[in-house]
Design goal:
- The strands form five sheets. The chain has a six-stranded mixed sheet. The chain has a five-stranded mixed sheet with strand order 5-4-6-3-7, sandwiched between helices.
- α6 packs parallel to α7 and α8 runs parallel beside α15.
- The longest helix is centred in the middle third of the chain and has 16 residues.
- It has 15 helices and 21 strands.
- The protein is an alpha/beta fold and 474 residues long.
- It has four domains: 134 residues, Double Stranded RNA Binding Domain (2-Layer Sandwich); 88 residues, 3-Layer(aba) Sandwich (D-Maltodextrin-Binding Protein, domain 2), CATH 3.40.190.10; 98 residues, Rossmann fold (3-Layer(aba) Sandwich), CATH 3.40.50; 120 residues, 3-Layer(aba) Sandwich (Rossmann fold).
- GO terms for molecular function: hydroxymethylbilane synthase activity; uroporphyrinogen-III synthase activity.
- It catalyses: 4 porphobilinogen + H2O = hydroxymethylbilane + 4 NH4(+).
- Monomer.
- InterPro entries: 4pyrrol_syn_uPrphyn_synt_sf, 4pyrrol_synth_uPrphyn_synth, HemC, Porphobilin_deaminase_N, Porphobilinogen_deaminase_C_sf.
């Protein structure tokens, strides 16, 4: 029987009949339209908006994305969570999960499910010990939370100025500013708690950054959008307009990468009627076929800056110490690393999208230690150059690249380039056609277009989620 206001109606009735003076709500449970005579006097500081995937330890498979075993049963009653989970793990079985946070966790403990997904904010506020489970924290830019997730709303009767003034000591205006965007998006979609809608807004360096995910139903494939703006004025309206059924999408995209039929990017494009021409314009070749065990001696960290580096390295069957830690540039590399049974201890995508920013943070974590960098011959060494004096750096070229010749022109509406080498190979024989738009993965790829004086879009994240958002946002 749940619907709009299901979790909040009784408290609001208490305010209206004067039996209470203040109601404290989880803000995401509040309908976007307040009952006449009531106002939100203050909002709390935002608790961490990450989602938590709690997995029974005997149901963990780290080779799978999100670490739930293939075909596992995941508990959630949220259509938003269901749509986003099935988009990246269509093999999972999703079953309803109801009750408060301790009740939901007890159901997992009783092995009614293999895993459950819940908001980190509630678990943290209750101080629940999760050590008996394998816990995966999912970043809100990857798994987009409910509007206002992690925020408390303090509601009072309208006109009670004295109480309103007192409560301003609890009010966080910066939080109110960003969740107002999220809630406006929800309102414009006329959505309630059952709509498969996620919206997360934050303010970085004076700009509003907003991620939105929306599906038609819980088992439908969601469309995703990332948008950045200098102002919140009209921002929610711009976001909602991008999801209009009447909006025209590109008919075809070209990408310098082979795209499997099971990939997230292919499914995201096909869901919007967009065809894909995927072909790599570079060839890779191994440089070595055997690894000297001495190179791996006393290694503290191994840092990978590409998926190719990971695949070529593990194909050499390295014998690694259990104390060795792994660092990767982003989510795409993490997925590749997981296929070899390893989970990164450092993922640069959690620190920023600029390689220089990632390098600075990695230097803070691993500076002064012994670090191995398997990679391509002639790589830019951006991360290595940021490491402090005293760090023992071992560069290990394990593959090299060559450019394809006589690359066929693409007439697609959108061209996506995944590396500087692919840009070089394509423009050796071709020019950009009028009306074609360009998306680049990474700033080093974008610099090639800066040199040519051509404009391009840079996705927030250099993985298939980010690429899908970028195409959808054009």
């Amino acid at each position: 029987m749940e619907g709009k206001g299901f979790f909040t109606k009784e408290l609001e009735e208490g305010l209206l009949d004067n039996s209470i003076d203040i109601a404290v709500h989880s803000h995401k449970d509040l309908p976007t339209q307040h009952p006449a005579g009531l106002i939100i006097a203050a909002v709390s500081e935002r608790e961490d908006p990450h989602e938590l995937l709690l997995i029974l330890k005997d149901c963990v498979d780290i080779k799978q994305k999100l670490s739930v075993k293939y075909g596992g049963m995941v508990g959630t009653s949220s259509n938003r969570r269901k749509a986003q989970l099935l988009a990246v793990r269509p093999d999972l079985e999703i079953e309803d999960l109801r009750g408060n946070v301790p009740t939901r966790i007890q159901k997992l403990r009783d092995e009614d499910y293999d895993a459950i997904i819940i908001a980190k904010a509630g678990v943290f506020r209750l101080g629940i010990d999760l050590s008996e489970f394998h816990v995966e924290e999912i970043d809100p830019t990857e798994f987009i939370p409910s509007p206002a997730q992690g925020v408390l709303a303090i509601q009072i009767r309208e006109g009670n100025q004295e109480l309103y003034d007192i409560l301003q000591g609890l009010h966080h205006a910066d939080v109110a500013e960003v969740i107002a965007v999220e809630r406006k998006v929800l309102n414009l979609f006329n959505g309630g708690c059952h709509m498969p809608l996620g919206c997360f807004c934050r303010k970085e360096n004076g700009k509003f950054q907003v991620w939105t995910s929306k599906a038609d139903e819980g088992d439908s494939f969601p469309s995703r959008l990332f948008i950045e703006s200098d102002t919140a004025d009209g921002l929610a309206e711009r976001i909602v307009a991008k999801f209009s059924k009447q909006r025209k999408h590109p008919s075809k995209v070209f990408i310098t990468r082979e795209i499997s039929e099971y990939s997230y990017f292919r499914k995201a494009m096909e869901a919007n009627g967009i065809s894909i021409d995927g072909r790599s314009l570079i060839r890779t070749f191994p440089i070595i076929n055997k690894l000297d065990p001495y190179i791996l001696r006393d290694i503290d960290w191994i840092f990978f800056n590409s998926k190719n580096a990971i695949e070529y390295f593990f194909n050499l069957d390295p014998q690694l110490s259990k104390k060795t830690k792994f660092g990767v540039l982003g989510r795409a590399s993490e997925e590749t690393l997981r296929r070899f049974g390893k989970v990164p201890d450092f993922n640069g995508e959690e620190e920023g999208i600029d390689t220089a920013e990632i390098a600075k943070e990695f230097a803070r974590v691993a500076g002064g230690l012994k670090i191995l960098f398997p990679g391509a011959k002639g790589s830019l060494r951006t991360v290595q150059q940021m490491l402090p004096e005293g760090t023992r750096i071992i560069d290990l070229p394990i593959y090299e690249t060559g450019l394809e010749e006589n690359v066929e022109q693409s007439h697609a509406d959108v061209l996506i380039f995944t590396s500087p080498s692919n840009v070089e190979a394509y423009f050796e024989d071709n020019l950009l056609e009028p009306g074609q738009k360009v998306i680049c993965i990474g700033r080093s790829t974008g610099k090639k277009f800066d040199e040519m004086g051509l404009s391009y879009t840079l996705p927030y994240s250099p993985d298939e989620l980010g690429l899908s958002e970028a195409v959808f946002g054009l």
